[in-house]
Amino acid sequence: MTASAPSSALSAGEAAPNPQLIRIRDLVYQVAGIFQPDNKLRLLEDRCVKRMEVLGAKTLREYYECLTVKPIRQAELVSLLNEITIGETCFFRNLPQLDALRNIVLLKIIEARANLPLRHLRIWSAGCSTGEEPYTLSMMLLEETASRLKGWTFEILATDLNERSLAHAKHGSYGTYSTRNLTSYYRQKYFTDRGDELHVNPDVKAHVNFSRLNLFDDSRVAFMKGLDLIMCCNVLIYFDGLSKRRVIQHFYNNLLAHGYLFLGHSESLYGISEDFRLVHLPSATAYVKSEKRQVNR
Predict the structure, then answer these.
(1) Which entry of 62, 102, 240, 244 is 20 to 30 Å from 202 by CA?
(2) Predicted confidence (pLDDT) per residue in 144-201, tens digit
(3) What fold is seen in the domain 19-84?
(4) 259 close to 228: Cβ distance less than 8 angstroms
Protein backbone atom coordinates (compact mmCIF):
# COMPACT_ATOMS: atom_id res chain seq x y z
CA MET A 1 0.00 0.00 0.00
CA THR A 2 1.35 3.40 -0.92
CA ALA A 3 0.11 6.80 0.16
CA SER A 4 -0.07 9.90 -1.96
CA ALA A 5 0.58 13.16 -0.18
CA PRO A 6 -2.47 15.38 0.28
CA SER A 7 -2.47 18.70 -1.49
CA SER A 8 -2.49 21.97 0.45
CA ALA A 9 -3.71 25.25 -0.91
CA LEU A 10 -1.81 28.50 -0.55
CA SER A 11 -3.43 31.66 0.76
CA ALA A 12 -3.74 34.60 -1.58
CA GLY A 13 -0.45 36.42 -1.94
CA GLU A 14 1.53 33.66 -0.22
CA ALA A 15 4.76 32.64 -1.91
CA ALA A 16 4.93 29.09 -3.21
CA PRO A 17 7.20 26.82 -1.14
CA ASN A 18 10.51 25.67 -2.56
CA PRO A 19 9.63 22.76 -4.90
CA GLN A 20 12.58 20.71 -3.61
CA LEU A 21 11.28 21.11 -0.07
CA ILE A 22 7.88 19.89 -1.24
CA ARG A 23 9.55 16.83 -2.76
CA ILE A 24 11.29 16.12 0.55
CA ARG A 25 8.01 16.65 2.42
CA ASP A 26 6.26 14.18 0.10
CA LEU A 27 9.06 11.63 0.46
CA VAL A 28 8.77 11.73 4.25
CA TYR A 29 5.02 11.30 3.93
CA GLN A 30 5.36 8.34 1.59
CA VAL A 31 7.90 6.58 3.79
CA ALA A 32 6.58 7.33 7.29
CA GLY A 33 3.09 8.80 6.93
CA ILE A 34 4.20 12.05 8.59
CA PHE A 35 2.75 15.04 6.75
CA GLN A 36 4.10 18.55 7.14
CA PRO A 37 1.50 21.14 6.02
CA ASP A 38 2.66 24.26 4.23
CA ASN A 39 2.51 26.31 7.43
CA LYS A 40 4.98 23.89 9.06
CA LEU A 41 7.45 23.72 6.18
CA ARG A 42 9.80 26.17 7.89
CA LEU A 43 10.38 23.59 10.62
CA LEU A 44 11.06 20.90 8.02
CA GLU A 45 13.44 23.21 6.19
CA ASP A 46 15.34 23.92 9.43
CA ARG A 47 15.75 20.17 9.99
CA CYS A 48 16.94 19.70 6.41
CA VAL A 49 19.46 22.53 6.74
CA LYS A 50 20.84 20.91 9.88
CA ARG A 51 21.41 17.66 7.99
CA MET A 52 22.80 19.54 4.94
CA GLU A 53 25.45 21.10 7.15
CA VAL A 54 26.51 17.65 8.32
CA LEU A 55 26.71 16.30 4.77
CA GLY A 56 28.11 19.40 3.14
CA ALA A 57 25.13 19.66 0.77
CA LYS A 58 24.75 23.16 -0.66
CA THR A 59 21.17 23.14 -1.91
CA LEU A 60 17.87 21.40 -1.18
CA ARG A 61 18.10 19.78 -4.60
CA GLU A 62 21.44 18.25 -3.65
CA TYR A 63 20.05 17.14 -0.32
CA TYR A 64 17.03 15.54 -2.02
CA GLU A 65 19.49 13.52 -4.10
CA CYS A 66 21.16 12.40 -0.86
CA LEU A 67 17.76 11.09 0.24
CA THR A 68 16.86 9.34 -2.99
CA VAL A 69 19.70 8.37 -5.31
CA LYS A 70 23.02 8.49 -3.46
CA PRO A 71 24.38 5.40 -1.64
CA ILE A 72 23.69 7.04 1.73
CA ARG A 73 19.96 7.47 0.96
CA GLN A 74 18.61 4.91 3.44
CA ALA A 75 20.84 6.02 6.30
CA GLU A 76 20.19 9.68 5.57
CA LEU A 77 16.44 9.22 5.51
CA VAL A 78 16.67 7.66 8.97
CA SER A 79 18.77 10.64 10.11
CA LEU A 80 16.20 13.12 8.78
CA LEU A 81 13.37 11.24 10.48
CA ASN A 82 15.37 11.40 13.70
CA GLU A 83 15.35 15.19 13.38
CA ILE A 84 11.64 15.40 12.58
CA THR A 85 10.30 13.06 15.25
CA ILE A 86 11.74 14.56 18.43
CA GLY A 87 9.16 13.84 21.17
CA GLU A 88 8.58 15.11 24.69
CA THR A 89 7.43 12.88 27.51
CA CYS A 90 7.96 11.99 31.15
CA PHE A 91 7.24 9.23 33.65
CA PHE A 92 3.59 8.88 34.75
CA ARG A 93 2.63 11.52 32.20
CA ASN A 94 -1.16 11.00 32.12
CA LEU A 95 -2.10 9.94 35.63
CA PRO A 96 -5.90 9.63 35.09
CA GLN A 97 -5.26 7.34 32.13
CA LEU A 98 -2.76 5.24 34.07
CA ASP A 99 -5.12 4.97 37.06
CA ALA A 100 -7.90 3.77 34.75
CA LEU A 101 -5.53 1.27 33.19
CA ARG A 102 -4.41 -0.13 36.53
CA ASN A 103 -7.74 -0.17 38.36
CA ILE A 104 -10.21 -1.01 35.57
CA VAL A 105 -8.66 -2.09 32.28
CA LEU A 106 -6.09 -4.45 33.78
CA LEU A 107 -8.82 -6.26 35.74
CA LYS A 108 -10.97 -6.66 32.63
CA ILE A 109 -8.04 -8.05 30.64
CA ILE A 110 -7.17 -10.52 33.42
CA GLU A 111 -10.81 -11.61 33.59
CA ALA A 112 -10.97 -12.09 29.82
CA ARG A 113 -7.82 -14.22 29.89
CA ALA A 114 -8.90 -16.30 32.90
CA ASN A 115 -9.70 -19.40 30.84
CA LEU A 116 -6.57 -19.20 28.70
CA PRO A 117 -3.73 -21.59 29.63
CA LEU A 118 -0.97 -18.98 29.30
CA ARG A 119 -0.96 -16.26 31.94
CA HIS A 120 1.04 -13.76 29.98
CA LEU A 121 0.30 -10.14 29.06
CA ARG A 122 1.60 -8.62 25.85
CA ILE A 123 1.63 -4.82 25.59
CA TRP A 124 2.75 -2.51 22.80
CA SER A 125 3.99 1.01 23.48
CA ALA A 126 3.81 2.40 19.94
CA GLY A 127 5.81 5.60 19.62
CA CYS A 128 7.62 5.10 22.92
CA SER A 129 9.97 8.07 22.41
CA THR A 130 12.74 8.03 25.04
CA GLY A 131 11.21 5.19 27.04
CA GLU A 132 9.39 6.84 29.93
CA GLU A 133 6.01 5.33 28.98
CA PRO A 134 7.04 1.66 28.70
CA TYR A 135 9.15 1.90 31.85
CA THR A 136 6.16 3.43 33.66
CA LEU A 137 4.02 0.50 32.52
CA SER A 138 6.68 -1.95 33.63
CA MET A 139 6.81 -0.43 37.12
CA MET A 140 3.02 -0.42 37.41
CA LEU A 141 2.73 -4.06 36.43
CA LEU A 142 5.58 -5.07 38.72
CA GLU A 143 3.56 -3.53 41.54
CA GLU A 144 0.71 -5.91 40.67
CA THR A 145 2.77 -9.13 40.57
CA ALA A 146 2.20 -9.75 44.29
CA SER A 147 -1.57 -9.44 43.96
CA ARG A 148 -3.63 -9.17 40.75
CA LEU A 149 -0.82 -10.47 38.54
CA LYS A 150 0.48 -13.14 40.89
CA GLY A 151 1.63 -16.03 38.74
CA TRP A 152 1.54 -13.93 35.56
CA THR A 153 4.33 -12.76 33.26
CA PHE A 154 4.31 -9.76 30.99
CA GLU A 155 6.27 -8.17 28.17
CA ILE A 156 6.21 -4.64 26.81
CA LEU A 157 7.15 -4.10 23.18
CA ALA A 158 8.38 -0.53 22.89
CA THR A 159 8.88 0.87 19.39
CA ASP A 160 9.71 4.20 17.86
CA LEU A 161 10.87 5.65 14.57
CA ASN A 162 13.62 7.75 16.11
CA GLU A 163 16.94 5.94 16.62
CA ARG A 164 18.30 8.57 19.00
CA SER A 165 15.22 8.32 21.22
CA LEU A 166 15.55 4.53 21.33
CA ALA A 167 19.23 4.75 22.28
CA HIS A 168 18.28 7.05 25.15
CA ALA A 169 15.52 4.64 26.19
CA LYS A 170 17.79 1.61 26.19
CA HIS A 171 20.37 3.46 28.28
CA GLY A 172 17.67 4.32 30.81
CA SER A 173 19.08 7.44 32.48
CA TYR A 174 16.80 10.43 33.07
CA GLY A 175 17.10 13.95 34.42
CA THR A 176 14.81 16.02 36.62
CA TYR A 177 12.38 17.01 33.82
CA SER A 178 11.53 13.44 32.85
CA THR A 179 11.30 12.26 36.46
CA ARG A 180 9.34 15.19 37.89
CA ASN A 181 6.16 13.11 38.44
CA LEU A 182 7.86 10.24 40.25
CA THR A 183 6.81 9.68 43.84
CA SER A 184 9.51 8.97 46.40
CA TYR A 185 8.24 5.39 46.52
CA TYR A 186 8.83 4.69 42.83
CA ARG A 187 12.05 6.71 42.83
CA GLN A 188 13.59 4.67 45.63
CA LYS A 189 12.27 1.26 44.56
CA TYR A 190 12.88 1.28 40.81
CA PHE A 191 15.75 3.73 40.19
CA THR A 192 19.39 4.11 41.10
CA ASP A 193 20.56 7.65 41.85
CA ARG A 194 23.58 8.57 39.74
CA GLY A 195 24.27 12.20 40.52
CA ASP A 196 22.17 14.43 38.29
CA GLU A 197 20.24 11.52 36.79
CA LEU A 198 18.18 8.53 37.84
CA HIS A 199 18.90 5.19 36.18
CA VAL A 200 16.16 2.61 35.65
CA ASN A 201 16.83 -0.59 37.56
CA PRO A 202 17.40 -3.91 35.72
CA ASP A 203 14.17 -5.51 36.97
CA VAL A 204 12.16 -2.77 35.23
CA LYS A 205 14.22 -3.01 32.04
CA ALA A 206 13.89 -6.80 31.90
CA HIS A 207 10.25 -6.57 30.83
CA VAL A 208 10.75 -4.00 28.05
CA ASN A 209 12.02 -4.76 24.56
CA PHE A 210 12.95 -1.69 22.48
CA SER A 211 13.14 -1.75 18.69
CA ARG A 212 12.91 0.69 15.78
CA LEU A 213 9.63 0.39 13.92
CA ASN A 214 8.06 2.52 11.22
CA LEU A 215 4.28 2.35 11.65
CA PHE A 216 4.07 2.56 7.85
CA ASP A 217 6.09 -0.64 7.47
CA ASP A 218 3.13 -2.94 6.82
CA SER A 219 5.12 -6.18 6.77
CA ARG A 220 6.80 -5.56 10.14
CA VAL A 221 3.77 -4.11 11.88
CA ALA A 222 1.78 -7.16 10.81
CA PHE A 223 3.95 -9.28 13.12
CA MET A 224 2.89 -7.33 16.24
CA LYS A 225 0.22 -9.94 16.97
CA GLY A 226 -1.60 -11.14 20.07
CA LEU A 227 -1.70 -7.86 21.99
CA ASP A 228 -3.73 -7.24 25.15
CA LEU A 229 -3.06 -3.52 25.20
CA ILE A 230 -1.76 -0.90 22.78
CA MET A 231 -0.57 2.49 24.02
CA CYS A 232 -0.21 4.99 21.18
CA CYS A 233 -0.21 8.40 22.84
CA ASN A 234 0.51 11.62 20.96
CA VAL A 235 1.65 9.81 17.82
CA LEU A 236 -1.36 10.14 15.52
CA ILE A 237 -1.09 13.93 15.70
CA TYR A 238 1.74 13.66 13.14
CA PHE A 239 -0.49 11.82 10.65
CA ASP A 240 -3.21 12.93 8.27
CA GLY A 241 -6.51 11.05 7.94
CA LEU A 242 -5.26 8.53 5.40
CA SER A 243 -2.18 7.68 7.43
CA LYS A 244 -4.23 7.35 10.62
CA ARG A 245 -6.62 4.89 8.99
CA ARG A 246 -3.72 2.75 7.83
CA VAL A 247 -2.14 2.62 11.29
CA ILE A 248 -5.44 2.07 13.11
CA GLN A 249 -6.22 -0.87 10.82
CA HIS A 250 -2.97 -2.48 11.96
CA PHE A 251 -3.92 -1.86 15.59
CA TYR A 252 -7.27 -3.55 15.00
CA ASN A 253 -5.66 -6.57 13.38
CA ASN A 254 -3.02 -6.98 16.10
CA LEU A 255 -5.20 -6.43 19.15
CA LEU A 256 -6.88 -9.43 20.80
CA ALA A 257 -10.69 -9.44 21.05
CA HIS A 258 -10.58 -8.31 24.69
CA GLY A 259 -7.79 -5.79 24.12
CA TYR A 260 -7.73 -2.05 24.75
CA LEU A 261 -6.28 0.86 22.78
CA PHE A 262 -5.22 4.06 24.53
CA LEU A 263 -4.50 7.30 22.65
CA GLY A 264 -3.32 10.70 23.85
CA HIS A 265 -5.90 12.82 25.68
CA SER A 266 -6.30 15.15 22.68
CA GLU A 267 -6.53 12.35 20.10
CA SER A 268 -9.66 10.67 18.77
CA LEU A 269 -10.76 8.09 16.22
CA TYR A 270 -13.88 10.09 15.37
CA GLY A 271 -14.25 10.10 11.61
CA ILE A 272 -11.20 7.83 11.29
CA SER A 273 -12.38 4.31 12.13
CA GLU A 274 -15.56 2.45 13.01
CA ASP A 275 -13.59 -0.64 13.98
CA PHE A 276 -13.26 0.63 17.53
CA ARG A 277 -15.80 1.71 20.14
CA LEU A 278 -15.06 4.51 22.58
CA VAL A 279 -15.15 3.53 26.25
CA HIS A 280 -15.50 6.16 28.98
CA LEU A 281 -13.42 5.55 32.08
CA PRO A 282 -13.01 7.75 35.17
CA SER A 283 -11.28 10.90 33.84
CA ALA A 284 -10.00 8.99 30.78
CA THR A 285 -11.12 7.26 27.60
CA ALA A 286 -10.02 4.14 25.74
CA TYR A 287 -11.04 2.12 22.72
CA VAL A 288 -12.14 -1.50 22.38
CA LYS A 289 -12.97 -3.46 19.27
CA SER A 290 -16.45 -2.84 17.95
CA GLU A 291 -18.50 -6.00 18.52
CA LYS A 292 -20.37 -5.54 15.25
CA ARG A 293 -17.16 -5.22 13.27
CA GLN A 294 -15.69 -8.32 14.93
CA VAL A 295 -18.76 -10.38 13.99
CA ASN A 296 -18.63 -9.15 10.40
CA ARG A 297 -14.96 -10.05 10.07
Answers:
(1) 102
(2) 999 999 999 999 999 999 999 999 999 999 999 999 999 999 999 999 998 889 999 9
(3) Chemotaxis Receptor Methyltransferase Cher; domain 1 (1.10.155)
(4) yes
pTM reported for the whole predicted model: 0.87
DSSP for 164-182, please give it. Answer: HHHHHHHHTEE-TTTTTT-
Architecture of the domain defined by 95-296 = 3-Layer(aba) Sandwich (3.40)
The Cα-based distances of 126 to 106, 113, 224, 231 in angstroms read 18, 23, 10, 6
Which residues on neighbouring strands pair with residue 260, listed in sequence order? Answer: 229, 288
Q: How far apart are the first and last CA of the chain?
A: 21
What is the distance between the alpha carbons of residues 139 and 45, in angstroms, rounded to a whole number? 39
- pLDDT for the residue numbered 9: 38
Give the list of residues 6+ apart from residue 71 with CB closer than 8 angstroms, or none.
none
**Phi, psi of 211, rounded to the nearest 5 degrees:** -155, 155
Domain boundaries, the chain: 19-84, 95-296
Q: Is the separation of the CB atoms in 181 and 90 below 8 Å?
A: yes
8 Å CB contact between 27 and 51: no
